[in-house]
Amino acid sequence: MTYFWVIFVSILPIAAFYIVQGTIRPMLIPKAEIRLIAAKLIKEHGLNAYEFAEIAEERAWRYSRIYDQGKWKRIRQEIAQQLSQEHT
């Protein structure tokens, strides 16, 4: 049972780091900045802006850039929302 707690206590800071970097920090980016980036991507790439953001998010995942992955996820969601509003 002691080994369990040793392992648990060693993993806990790593898990907390990933939660802060991947979830909390990207949520602190102002919504206006996310909208601006999304609008710029839609202007530059048109309907392919969603795919561009998806590729950027995957690249951040591949290179273990947790914060960037969370940021691009928010941008990708905003692009999807803006594109759906344009087409309705």
Category from helices, strands and their pairing: mainly alpha
SSE pattern: HHHH
Query: What amount of the residues lies in strands?
Result: under 5%
Q: How many DSSP helices?
A: 4
Round the Cα radius of gyration to an integer and report it.
17 Å
Query: What distance separates the N and C termini?
Result: 58 Å
What are the segments in which pLDDT stays under 50 over at least 5 consecutive residues? none
* Major β-sheet profile: none
Helical coverage, percent range: over 70%
Strand element count: 0
Oligomer: single chain
Q: Average pLDDT, to the nearest integer?
A: 94
Count of the separate structural domains: 1
Overall spatial form: elongated
Write a concise keyword list for the protein shown above:
88 residues; mainly alpha
Please describe what this structure looks like.
This protein is mostly helical and 88 residues long. It has one domain (21-86). It is built from four helices and no strands. The protein has helices at residues 2-27, 31-45, 49-62, 66-86. The protein starts with a helix and ends with a helix. The mean pLDDT is 94.
Strand and helix layout:
Layout: H1 2-27, H2 31-45, H3 49-62, H4 66-86
Helix pairs in contact: 1-4, 2-3, 2-4, 3-4
